[in-house]
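#help-structures

NK: newbie question. if I give both the sequence and a SMILES, will the prediction place the ligand too? trying with flavin-adenine dinucleotide
OV: yes, paste both and it writes out the complex. here, I ran yours:
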Amino acid sequence: MLDWIIIGGGIQGITVASYLVGSKKVTIDNLMIIDPHDEPLTNWKVCTRKINMPFLRSPFIHHIDVDPFSLQKFVRKKRHEETAFYGRYKRPNLEIFNEHCEEVIQTNRLKECWSKGYVTDISKEGIHWIVQVNHSQQVKSRNVILALGLSEQPKWPGWAKTLKEHNEAQVFHIFDETLESLHTIKPPVTVVGGGITAVHTALHLAQIFPGEVTLLKRHPFRLFDFDSNPGWLGPKYMRAFHHTTDFKERRQMIVQARNRGSITRELYVKVKTAVREKRLIIQNGQVQKADYHLGKIDLYLSEALPTLSTTTLLLTTGFDQSLPGKQLLQPLIHAQQLKCSECGYPIVNHQLQWGPNLYVAGALAELEIGPTARNVAGARKAAEAIVRGI
Ligand SMILES: Cc1cc2nc3c(=O)[nH]c(=O)nc-3n(C[C@H](O)[C@H](O)[C@H](O)COP(=O)(O)OP(=O)(O)OC[C@H]3O[C@@H](n4cnc5c(N)ncnc54)[C@H](O)[C@@H]3O)c2cc1C
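OV: that's the protein plus ligand as C-alpha coordinates.
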Protein backbone atom coordinates (compact mmCIF):
# COMPACT_ATOMS: atom_id res chain seq x y z
CA MET A 1 0.00 0.00 0.00
CA LEU A 2 1.30 3.42 -1.00
CA ASP A 3 0.61 6.84 0.51
CA TRP A 4 0.59 8.75 -2.77
CA ILE A 5 0.16 7.99 -6.46
CA ILE A 6 0.65 10.74 -9.00
CA ILE A 7 -0.88 9.99 -12.40
CA GLY A 8 1.13 11.84 -15.05
CA GLY A 9 4.83 12.64 -14.93
CA GLY A 10 4.89 15.90 -16.90
CA ILE A 11 5.77 19.36 -15.57
CA GLN A 12 2.72 19.26 -13.30
CA GLY A 13 3.14 15.80 -11.81
CA ILE A 14 6.88 16.19 -11.34
CA THR A 15 6.55 19.59 -9.69
CA VAL A 16 4.03 18.18 -7.21
CA ALA A 17 6.31 15.18 -6.58
CA SER A 18 9.30 17.45 -6.04
CA TYR A 19 7.31 19.51 -3.49
CA LEU A 20 5.97 16.42 -1.69
CA VAL A 21 9.43 14.88 -1.35
CA GLY A 22 11.38 18.16 -1.05
CA SER A 23 9.20 19.38 1.81
CA LYS A 24 9.50 15.96 3.49
CA LYS A 25 5.77 15.33 3.48
CA VAL A 26 6.28 12.03 1.69
CA THR A 27 9.14 9.56 1.48
CA ILE A 28 9.96 8.11 -1.90
CA ASP A 29 9.08 4.55 -0.89
CA ASN A 30 5.53 5.78 -0.27
CA LEU A 31 5.20 7.53 -3.61
CA MET A 32 4.60 6.28 -7.15
CA ILE A 33 4.49 8.36 -10.34
CA ILE A 34 2.67 6.50 -13.12
CA ASP A 35 3.20 7.65 -16.71
CA PRO A 36 3.41 5.82 -20.06
CA HIS A 37 6.79 7.29 -20.98
CA ASP A 38 10.27 6.00 -20.17
CA GLU A 39 11.13 9.04 -18.14
CA PRO A 40 9.79 12.24 -16.57
CA LEU A 41 8.88 15.34 -18.61
CA THR A 42 8.82 13.52 -21.96
CA ASN A 43 6.00 15.55 -23.53
CA TRP A 44 7.57 18.80 -22.37
CA LYS A 45 10.95 17.89 -23.84
CA VAL A 46 9.54 16.58 -27.12
CA CYS A 47 7.24 19.58 -27.72
CA THR A 48 9.81 22.25 -26.87
CA ARG A 49 12.64 20.54 -28.77
CA LYS A 50 10.52 20.06 -31.88
CA ILE A 51 9.76 23.77 -32.24
CA ASN A 52 13.36 24.69 -31.36
CA MET A 53 12.33 27.02 -28.53
CA PRO A 54 15.54 28.63 -27.24
CA PHE A 55 14.13 30.31 -24.10
CA LEU A 56 11.07 29.73 -21.97
CA ARG A 57 8.39 32.38 -21.96
CA SER A 58 8.16 32.29 -18.18
CA PRO A 59 10.70 33.92 -15.83
CA PHE A 60 13.53 32.26 -13.85
CA ILE A 61 11.54 31.80 -10.64
CA HIS A 62 9.15 29.41 -12.40
CA HIS A 63 10.66 25.92 -12.32
CA ILE A 64 9.97 22.57 -10.64
CA ASP A 65 11.87 23.02 -7.37
CA VAL A 66 10.52 24.33 -4.05
CA ASP A 67 12.95 27.22 -3.55
CA PRO A 68 12.05 29.97 -6.07
CA PHE A 69 15.74 30.86 -6.44
CA SER A 70 16.82 27.27 -7.02
CA LEU A 71 17.33 27.73 -10.78
CA GLN A 72 19.37 30.88 -10.25
CA LYS A 73 21.56 29.12 -7.67
CA PHE A 74 21.97 26.17 -10.04
CA VAL A 75 23.13 28.51 -12.82
CA ARG A 76 25.62 30.26 -10.49
CA LYS A 77 27.06 26.91 -9.48
CA LYS A 78 27.52 26.00 -13.16
CA ARG A 79 29.01 29.47 -13.90
CA HIS A 80 27.11 30.17 -17.12
CA GLU A 81 24.92 33.04 -15.99
CA GLU A 82 25.55 35.18 -19.14
CA THR A 83 23.82 32.72 -21.48
CA ALA A 84 21.37 31.19 -18.99
CA PHE A 85 18.72 33.89 -18.97
CA TYR A 86 17.16 36.21 -21.53
CA GLY A 87 15.87 39.75 -21.13
CA ARG A 88 14.57 41.73 -18.21
CA TYR A 89 12.40 38.91 -16.86
CA LYS A 90 15.38 36.55 -16.91
CA ARG A 91 13.64 33.88 -18.95
CA PRO A 92 15.67 30.67 -18.74
CA ASN A 93 17.37 29.02 -21.65
CA LEU A 94 15.57 25.72 -22.36
CA GLU A 95 18.69 23.57 -22.04
CA ILE A 96 19.54 25.00 -18.64
CA PHE A 97 15.93 24.76 -17.46
CA ASN A 98 15.97 21.07 -18.45
CA GLU A 99 19.35 20.45 -16.78
CA HIS A 100 17.97 22.00 -13.61
CA CYS A 101 14.88 19.75 -13.83
CA GLU A 102 17.20 16.77 -14.10
CA GLU A 103 19.06 17.87 -10.98
CA VAL A 104 15.83 18.33 -8.99
CA ILE A 105 14.61 14.91 -10.14
CA GLN A 106 17.91 13.34 -9.08
CA THR A 107 18.09 15.13 -5.73
CA ASN A 108 14.57 13.98 -4.86
CA ARG A 109 15.23 10.49 -6.32
CA LEU A 110 12.02 10.74 -8.33
CA LYS A 111 13.12 8.15 -10.91
CA GLU A 112 12.99 5.58 -8.11
CA CYS A 113 9.23 6.18 -7.81
CA TRP A 114 8.69 6.15 -11.58
CA SER A 115 6.42 3.42 -12.86
CA LYS A 116 5.97 3.17 -16.62
CA GLY A 117 2.35 2.47 -17.53
CA TYR A 118 -1.00 3.91 -18.50
CA VAL A 119 -3.72 4.21 -15.89
CA THR A 120 -6.90 2.65 -17.25
CA ASP A 121 -9.19 2.76 -14.23
CA ILE A 122 -9.48 4.35 -10.79
CA SER A 123 -11.88 2.96 -8.22
CA LYS A 124 -12.37 2.98 -4.48
CA GLU A 125 -12.13 0.20 -1.94
CA GLY A 126 -13.13 1.47 1.50
CA ILE A 127 -11.07 4.60 2.01
CA HIS A 128 -8.34 3.56 -0.44
CA TRP A 129 -7.91 4.14 -4.15
CA ILE A 130 -7.30 1.24 -6.50
CA VAL A 131 -5.41 2.36 -9.57
CA GLN A 132 -5.39 -0.02 -12.50
CA VAL A 133 -2.47 0.16 -14.89
CA ASN A 134 -2.57 -1.12 -18.51
CA HIS A 135 -5.88 -2.91 -17.79
CA SER A 136 -4.03 -5.46 -15.66
CA GLN A 137 -1.82 -4.52 -12.71
CA GLN A 138 -3.45 -2.90 -9.64
CA VAL A 139 -1.86 -0.51 -7.16
CA LYS A 140 -3.43 0.65 -3.89
CA SER A 141 -2.90 4.09 -2.41
CA ARG A 142 -4.31 6.37 0.27
CA ASN A 143 -4.07 9.44 -1.99
CA VAL A 144 -4.18 10.00 -5.73
CA ILE A 145 -3.14 13.12 -7.64
CA LEU A 146 -4.39 13.53 -11.22
CA ALA A 147 -1.79 15.43 -13.25
CA LEU A 148 -2.91 14.62 -16.79
CA GLY A 149 -2.08 17.34 -19.30
CA LEU A 150 -3.54 18.50 -22.59
CA SER A 151 -0.37 17.82 -24.60
CA GLU A 152 -1.75 14.57 -25.99
CA GLN A 153 -4.87 16.13 -27.47
CA PRO A 154 -3.70 18.32 -30.39
CA LYS A 155 -6.44 20.49 -31.87
CA TRP A 156 -7.43 19.85 -35.50
CA PRO A 157 -9.75 22.34 -37.26
CA GLY A 158 -12.59 20.58 -39.15
CA TRP A 159 -11.26 21.46 -42.63
CA ALA A 160 -7.84 19.98 -41.74
CA LYS A 161 -9.43 16.73 -40.49
CA THR A 162 -11.23 16.42 -43.84
CA LEU A 163 -7.96 17.05 -45.70
CA LYS A 164 -6.20 14.41 -43.63
CA GLU A 165 -8.64 11.83 -44.97
CA HIS A 166 -6.51 11.86 -48.17
CA ASN A 167 -3.82 9.42 -47.07
CA GLU A 168 -1.15 10.98 -49.24
CA ALA A 169 -1.75 14.60 -48.13
CA GLN A 170 1.15 15.92 -46.08
CA VAL A 171 -0.84 17.35 -43.16
CA PHE A 172 0.49 17.27 -39.62
CA HIS A 173 -0.11 18.82 -36.25
CA ILE A 174 3.21 20.01 -34.87
CA PHE A 175 2.62 17.93 -31.71
CA ASP A 176 1.67 14.70 -33.52
CA GLU A 177 3.77 11.86 -32.19
CA THR A 178 4.23 10.64 -35.76
CA LEU A 179 6.01 13.84 -36.76
CA GLU A 180 9.41 13.27 -35.24
CA SER A 181 11.45 15.99 -36.92
CA LEU A 182 10.82 19.05 -39.06
CA HIS A 183 13.87 18.20 -41.17
CA THR A 184 12.05 15.35 -42.91
CA ILE A 185 9.00 17.25 -44.19
CA LYS A 186 8.60 18.23 -47.85
CA PRO A 187 8.74 21.97 -48.71
CA PRO A 188 7.11 24.31 -49.52
CA VAL A 189 5.42 24.29 -46.16
CA THR A 190 2.60 26.38 -44.70
CA VAL A 191 2.39 26.79 -40.95
CA VAL A 192 -1.14 27.53 -39.73
CA GLY A 193 -1.39 29.49 -36.46
CA GLY A 194 -0.44 32.86 -35.04
CA GLY A 195 0.81 32.20 -31.53
CA ILE A 196 4.15 31.46 -29.96
CA THR A 197 4.32 27.83 -31.14
CA ALA A 198 3.51 28.91 -34.71
CA VAL A 199 6.23 31.53 -34.70
CA HIS A 200 8.91 29.30 -33.15
CA THR A 201 8.02 26.62 -35.70
CA ALA A 202 8.01 29.00 -38.66
CA LEU A 203 11.37 30.50 -37.66
CA HIS A 204 12.87 27.04 -37.25
CA LEU A 205 11.53 25.94 -40.64
CA ALA A 206 12.77 29.16 -42.25
CA GLN A 207 16.27 28.12 -41.22
CA ILE A 208 15.86 24.64 -42.69
CA PHE A 209 13.98 25.64 -45.88
CA PRO A 210 14.70 29.38 -46.39
CA GLY A 211 12.19 31.04 -48.73
CA GLU A 212 9.86 28.03 -48.76
CA VAL A 213 7.93 28.70 -45.58
CA THR A 214 4.63 30.61 -45.20
CA LEU A 215 3.11 31.49 -41.86
CA LEU A 216 -0.65 31.72 -42.30
CA LYS A 217 -2.44 33.49 -39.45
CA ARG A 218 -5.94 34.81 -39.02
CA HIS A 219 -5.18 37.82 -36.85
CA PRO A 220 -2.48 40.50 -36.58
CA PHE A 221 0.44 39.54 -34.30
CA ARG A 222 -0.56 40.02 -30.65
CA LEU A 223 2.40 41.12 -28.55
CA PHE A 224 2.45 40.15 -24.88
CA ASP A 225 5.32 39.20 -22.60
CA PHE A 226 3.42 36.40 -20.89
CA ASP A 227 0.54 33.98 -21.44
CA SER A 228 -1.51 36.03 -18.98
CA ASN A 229 -1.01 39.17 -16.91
CA PRO A 230 1.32 38.46 -13.93
CA GLY A 231 -1.47 39.90 -11.72
CA TRP A 232 -3.06 36.43 -12.03
CA LEU A 233 -0.21 34.97 -10.00
CA GLY A 234 -1.25 36.83 -6.86
CA PRO A 235 -4.15 38.52 -5.10
CA LYS A 236 -4.44 41.36 -7.63
CA TYR A 237 -6.72 39.31 -9.88
CA MET A 238 -6.99 36.03 -7.96
CA ARG A 239 -8.99 37.59 -5.10
CA ALA A 240 -11.90 38.41 -7.41
CA PHE A 241 -11.51 35.01 -9.06
CA HIS A 242 -11.86 33.19 -5.74
CA HIS A 243 -14.78 35.40 -4.70
CA THR A 244 -16.61 34.30 -7.83
CA THR A 245 -18.70 31.32 -6.81
CA ASP A 246 -20.20 30.75 -10.26
CA PHE A 247 -17.82 28.40 -12.04
CA LYS A 248 -19.17 29.32 -15.46
CA GLU A 249 -18.08 32.87 -14.69
CA ARG A 250 -14.66 31.62 -13.52
CA ARG A 251 -14.26 29.85 -16.88
CA GLN A 252 -15.05 33.11 -18.67
CA MET A 253 -12.49 34.94 -16.53
CA ILE A 254 -9.86 32.34 -17.50
CA VAL A 255 -10.67 32.58 -21.21
CA GLN A 256 -10.53 36.39 -21.11
CA ALA A 257 -7.31 36.46 -19.10
CA ARG A 258 -5.31 34.25 -21.46
CA ASN A 259 -3.31 36.03 -24.11
CA ARG A 260 -4.12 33.28 -26.57
CA GLY A 261 -2.30 33.31 -29.88
CA SER A 262 0.20 35.87 -28.63
CA ILE A 263 3.96 36.20 -29.05
CA THR A 264 6.77 38.04 -27.28
CA ARG A 265 8.32 41.19 -28.71
CA GLU A 266 11.68 39.57 -29.38
CA LEU A 267 10.03 36.85 -31.48
CA TYR A 268 8.21 39.55 -33.43
CA VAL A 269 11.57 41.17 -34.21
CA LYS A 270 12.93 37.80 -35.37
CA VAL A 271 9.92 37.33 -37.67
CA LYS A 272 10.45 40.78 -39.18
CA THR A 273 14.09 39.94 -39.83
CA ALA A 274 13.24 36.58 -41.41
CA VAL A 275 10.68 38.29 -43.67
CA ARG A 276 13.15 41.02 -44.64
CA GLU A 277 15.75 38.38 -45.48
CA LYS A 278 13.11 36.56 -47.58
CA ARG A 279 13.40 33.38 -45.55
CA LEU A 280 9.78 33.60 -44.35
CA ILE A 281 6.50 34.74 -45.90
CA ILE A 282 3.62 36.01 -43.75
CA GLN A 283 0.10 35.61 -45.05
CA ASN A 284 -3.06 36.78 -43.29
CA GLY A 285 -6.31 34.93 -43.78
CA GLN A 286 -8.56 32.26 -42.44
CA VAL A 287 -8.85 28.88 -44.15
CA GLN A 288 -12.41 28.18 -45.28
CA LYS A 289 -11.75 24.95 -47.14
CA ALA A 290 -8.83 22.84 -48.29
CA ASP A 291 -8.32 20.50 -51.24
CA TYR A 292 -5.71 17.94 -52.10
CA HIS A 293 -4.75 17.05 -55.66
CA LEU A 294 -1.62 15.33 -57.02
CA GLY A 295 0.74 16.21 -54.17
CA LYS A 296 -0.54 19.80 -53.76
CA ILE A 297 -2.73 21.21 -51.01
CA ASP A 298 -4.86 24.23 -51.94
CA LEU A 299 -6.06 26.45 -49.12
CA TYR A 300 -9.10 28.62 -49.88
CA LEU A 301 -9.02 31.71 -47.73
CA SER A 302 -11.59 34.12 -46.34
CA GLU A 303 -12.41 37.50 -47.90
CA ALA A 304 -11.73 36.23 -51.43
CA LEU A 305 -7.98 36.20 -50.81
CA PRO A 306 -5.97 34.31 -53.44
CA THR A 307 -5.78 30.52 -52.95
CA LEU A 308 -2.61 29.38 -51.24
CA SER A 309 -0.90 26.26 -52.55
CA THR A 310 1.51 24.22 -50.51
CA THR A 311 3.07 20.75 -50.33
CA THR A 312 3.05 20.35 -46.56
CA LEU A 313 0.63 21.80 -44.06
CA LEU A 314 1.70 22.10 -40.47
CA LEU A 315 -0.92 22.95 -37.86
CA THR A 316 0.19 24.89 -34.80
CA THR A 317 -3.34 25.28 -33.56
CA GLY A 318 -2.71 24.30 -29.94
CA PHE A 319 -4.59 21.73 -27.94
CA ASP A 320 -8.20 20.64 -27.65
CA GLN A 321 -9.49 22.44 -24.56
CA SER A 322 -11.89 19.72 -23.47
CA LEU A 323 -11.35 17.81 -20.24
CA PRO A 324 -8.06 15.88 -20.41
CA GLY A 325 -8.19 12.14 -19.71
CA LYS A 326 -11.93 11.97 -20.41
CA GLN A 327 -11.98 8.21 -20.90
CA LEU A 328 -10.38 7.62 -17.55
CA LEU A 329 -12.21 10.35 -15.66
CA GLN A 330 -15.79 10.01 -16.83
CA PRO A 331 -16.48 6.66 -15.10
CA LEU A 332 -14.72 7.99 -11.99
CA ILE A 333 -16.84 11.17 -11.98
CA HIS A 334 -19.93 9.02 -12.26
CA ALA A 335 -18.96 6.45 -9.62
CA GLN A 336 -17.71 8.97 -7.05
CA GLN A 337 -20.25 11.71 -7.85
CA LEU A 338 -17.44 14.22 -8.39
CA LYS A 339 -18.49 17.82 -8.96
CA CYS A 340 -17.82 19.33 -12.39
CA SER A 341 -18.59 22.70 -13.89
CA GLU A 342 -20.56 23.13 -17.10
CA CYS A 343 -17.28 23.09 -19.07
CA GLY A 344 -16.65 19.56 -17.74
CA TYR A 345 -13.73 20.56 -15.53
CA PRO A 346 -13.42 19.64 -11.82
CA ILE A 347 -14.78 21.82 -9.05
CA VAL A 348 -12.27 21.39 -6.24
CA ASN A 349 -11.53 22.94 -2.85
CA HIS A 350 -8.59 25.21 -1.95
CA GLN A 351 -6.35 22.16 -1.36
CA LEU A 352 -7.27 20.97 -4.85
CA GLN A 353 -9.21 18.02 -3.49
CA TRP A 354 -11.86 16.79 -5.90
CA GLY A 355 -12.98 14.01 -3.61
CA PRO A 356 -11.63 12.51 -0.38
CA ASN A 357 -7.86 12.11 -0.90
CA LEU A 358 -8.25 12.71 -4.62
CA TYR A 359 -6.33 15.76 -5.87
CA VAL A 360 -5.82 17.51 -9.20
CA ALA A 361 -3.02 19.61 -10.73
CA GLY A 362 -2.47 21.48 -13.99
CA ALA A 363 -5.32 21.92 -16.45
CA LEU A 364 -7.64 19.92 -14.18
CA ALA A 365 -7.06 22.47 -11.40
CA GLU A 366 -7.73 25.60 -13.40
CA LEU A 367 -11.12 26.49 -11.92
CA GLU A 368 -9.25 26.94 -8.62
CA ILE A 369 -5.71 27.97 -9.69
CA GLY A 370 -6.87 30.31 -12.47
CA PRO A 371 -5.43 31.15 -15.89
CA THR A 372 -1.86 30.19 -14.96
CA ALA A 373 -2.82 26.62 -13.93
CA ARG A 374 -1.37 24.86 -16.99
CA ASN A 375 1.98 26.65 -16.83
CA VAL A 376 5.03 26.07 -14.67
CA ALA A 377 3.81 28.81 -12.33
CA GLY A 378 0.50 26.97 -12.01
CA ALA A 379 2.32 23.72 -11.26
CA ARG A 380 4.07 25.46 -8.36
CA LYS A 381 0.77 26.86 -7.08
CA ALA A 382 -0.87 23.43 -7.30
CA ALA A 383 2.05 21.79 -5.49
CA GLU A 384 1.97 24.47 -2.76
CA ALA A 385 -1.78 24.06 -2.29
CA ILE A 386 -1.58 20.28 -2.00
CA VAL A 387 1.43 20.29 0.33
CA ARG A 388 -0.08 23.04 2.50
CA GLY A 389 -3.21 20.98 3.02
CA ILE A 390 -1.53 17.76 4.28
C1 LIG B 1 5.85 24.30 -26.80
C2 LIG B 1 5.43 24.68 -25.43
C3 LIG B 1 6.13 25.64 -24.73
C4 LIG B 1 5.75 26.00 -23.42
N1 LIG B 1 6.48 26.93 -22.76
C5 LIG B 1 6.14 27.25 -21.51
C6 LIG B 1 6.91 28.20 -20.76
O1 LIG B 1 7.88 28.76 -21.24
N2 LIG B 1 6.55 28.47 -19.48
C7 LIG B 1 5.46 27.86 -18.90
O2 LIG B 1 5.19 28.12 -17.74
N3 LIG B 1 4.70 26.98 -19.58
C8 LIG B 1 5.00 26.66 -20.86
N4 LIG B 1 4.24 25.75 -21.55
C9 LIG B 1 2.98 25.24 -20.94
C10 LIG B 1 3.13 24.09 -19.93
O3 LIG B 1 4.05 24.40 -18.95
C11 LIG B 1 3.52 22.77 -20.60
O4 LIG B 1 2.60 22.45 -21.59
C12 LIG B 1 3.62 21.62 -19.61
O5 LIG B 1 4.48 20.69 -20.19
C13 LIG B 1 2.30 20.94 -19.26
O6 LIG B 1 2.59 19.91 -18.35
P1 LIG B 1 1.55 18.80 -17.92
O7 LIG B 1 2.20 18.02 -16.84
O8 LIG B 1 0.24 19.42 -17.67
O9 LIG B 1 1.32 17.92 -19.23
P2 LIG B 1 2.20 16.75 -19.92
O10 LIG B 1 3.59 17.20 -20.13
O11 LIG B 1 1.44 16.29 -21.10
O12 LIG B 1 2.23 15.60 -18.82
C14 LIG B 1 1.11 14.82 -18.52
C15 LIG B 1 1.56 13.39 -18.48
O13 LIG B 1 0.48 12.58 -18.06
C16 LIG B 1 0.52 11.37 -18.79
N5 LIG B 1 -0.78 10.73 -18.76
C17 LIG B 1 -1.93 11.13 -19.37
N6 LIG B 1 -2.91 10.22 -19.16
C18 LIG B 1 -2.36 9.25 -18.38
C19 LIG B 1 -2.86 8.04 -17.83
N7 LIG B 1 -4.12 7.65 -18.02
N8 LIG B 1 -2.01 7.26 -17.12
C20 LIG B 1 -0.73 7.64 -16.90
N9 LIG B 1 -0.22 8.79 -17.39
C21 LIG B 1 -1.02 9.57 -18.13
C22 LIG B 1 0.95 11.83 -20.17
O14 LIG B 1 1.42 10.76 -20.96
C23 LIG B 1 2.02 12.85 -19.83
O15 LIG B 1 3.29 12.27 -19.75
C24 LIG B 1 4.62 25.38 -22.84
C25 LIG B 1 3.91 24.41 -23.57
C26 LIG B 1 4.31 24.07 -24.83
C27 LIG B 1 3.52 23.03 -25.58
